[in-house]
Amino acid sequence: MTAPLYAKVKEHILEHIRSGAWTPGTRVPSENELVEHFSISRMTANRALRELTADGFLSRVPGVGTFVKERPARSSLLELRNIAEEIAQRGHVYAAHIKKRQTVEATPALAEQFEMKHPARLFYLVMVHTENGVPVQLEERHVNPFAVPQFNDQDFAKITPTAYLIAHQPVDELEHTVEAIMPTAEQRALLDIGEDEPCLALHRRSWSRGHVVTVATLVYPASRYALYSRYKTSPSGTLSQ
Amino acid sequence: MTAPLYAKVKEHILEHIRSGAWTPGTRVPSENELVEHFSISRMTANRALRELTADGFLSRVPGVGTFVKERPARSSLLELRNIAEEIAQRGHVYAAHIKKRQTVEATPALAEQFEMKHPARLFYLVMVHTENGVPVQLEERHVNPFAVPQFNDQDFAKITPTAYLIAHQPVDELEHTVEAIMPTAEQRALLDIGEDEPCLALHRRSWSRGHVVTVATLVYPASRYALYSRYKTSPSGTLSQ
DNA sequence: AAGTGGTCTAGACCACCAG
DNA sequence: TGGTGGTCTAGACCACTTT
Q: Within 10 A of A63 (CB to CB), how many other CB atoms are there?
């Protein structure tokens, strides 16, 4: 029932990082110090520190010590990740600001994106996600009300649209397009960036049970965000095309 | 100099998986069997199996055994695609222009990217890929000569660096970072674009057998290229996190 | 009952870095 | 020289599954 010792040690260290008590660069307790403090063997302390290092939270230097790692702002391209959690994982403060929330008539272009035969009404949402008060993502999203009727009733200060959609509709298929753009004046204002800063635009469509559920454009200021992915290929290695 | 015992055990198991001798579902040797076979302690065998499990190669069932994992349906925005084939598929004319081809001393930053303990010499290549005569990709690449000694002898007008590397080194792991940038004057000149055009920069590192083989930056003019992916999720659907 | 993985201990030797 | 991480050993107890 009770968690393994190495897990307790990991959690102890993670709490200090998440709370901000141990900032990047801070030296964390050495293996021997953990042995004393928790009355555990060195192998157990070693496992805790080694796994946190593999997870990217710490970096170790033989003969010197173990330190809290600087965590770059990166997001996985392979997964639908909840930006609120991602920011919280970095120990930073997340906040959401809703800018628009309407029901709109689909334009022909939108109807095509939603694979609709006849134009219909769509939920429309514009919000800005901030990390420590700095805008890092502008989200512009249309949602098919037939797929997720309750979508517009949610409090998106409490649950992000992505999290809500994941929880309520199984994602069967995903489409992503990434491009570099120069933001429009309106986008610049919402993200609070200068005139010459390019942005990354991530366009996402997701399907559930054969129907397009949502079409979203996520705009990231170049100076504040990069998309990241890392993965191991299968041993059989059918990676190349 | 010689590799740690747990690493040797991992490599031993990975070779059987890579070669196809142990297919998904196959039971791998138990900890006690590895203890006998390699004359190691159980903790060392345990570490090897535990790390391979964390890496996604194995799955363990207490009281039953350890098994080769089914390859997860893994698709990516960023598969390794051969740009020459991609352009040919569109029925357009592909051409490559080599701009630089040198052997350079690794800077400290590069040595770190290559996970080298001591700086060493690297192959360095800069080339421009064109579609119907228009530059669409600027490729700046460093290659670890220990991993691919013949790399610099190739004729990259006939085979792209990506295609050559795929053919000669199994890619075990890939890391991608995508960001929006304003190109430098040199990049602008090579890509023949105007002053105000942002670009997409795709940074790629690839590993083979635990070593970094190559570090590449691919720069795409925003007006001429976007990254695209579409895929179905696996039936088990562990997509969201 | 025998085998499996999951965890943990109390030592040990080594290479490395600091003062 | 003492502290650090990196590795390894030879035991141990436990919960669990299979036979």
A: 4
Beta-carbon separation of A235 and B177 below 8 A? no
pLDDT in tens, A217-238: 999 998 887 777 766 654 433 3
DSSP element (H, E) containing B7: helix B5-19
Full set of structural domains in chain A with CATH? 5-68 (1.10.10.10), 73-228 (3.40.1410.10)
How confident is the model over A20-34, as a mean pLDDT?
92
Strand order in the sheet with A65-68: A27-28, A65-68, A58-61
pLDDT of residue B71: 60
Question: How many CB pairs below 8 Å do chains A and B form together?
Answer: 158
The DSSP symbol for A29 reads: P
Q: Is the CB of A42 under 7 A from strand D?
A: yes
- DSSP bridge partners of A218: A139, A202
State the burial class of residue A9 (Cβ atoms within 10 Å of its Cβ: 0-12, 13-18, 19+).
buried
Burial (Cβ within 10 Å: 0-12, 13-18, ≥19) of residue B89 = exposed
Walk across the sheet containing B27-28 and list its strands. B27-28, B65-68, B58-61
How many Å lie between the alpha carbon of A200 and the closest alpha carbon of chain B? Answer: 5
User: CB neighbours (10 Å) of residue B10?
Assistant: 20
Q: What percent of chain A has pLDDT over 70?
A: 90
Strand D contact at CB of residue A36, distance < 7 A: no
Say yes or no for a CB contact (<8 Å) between A179 and B227: yes
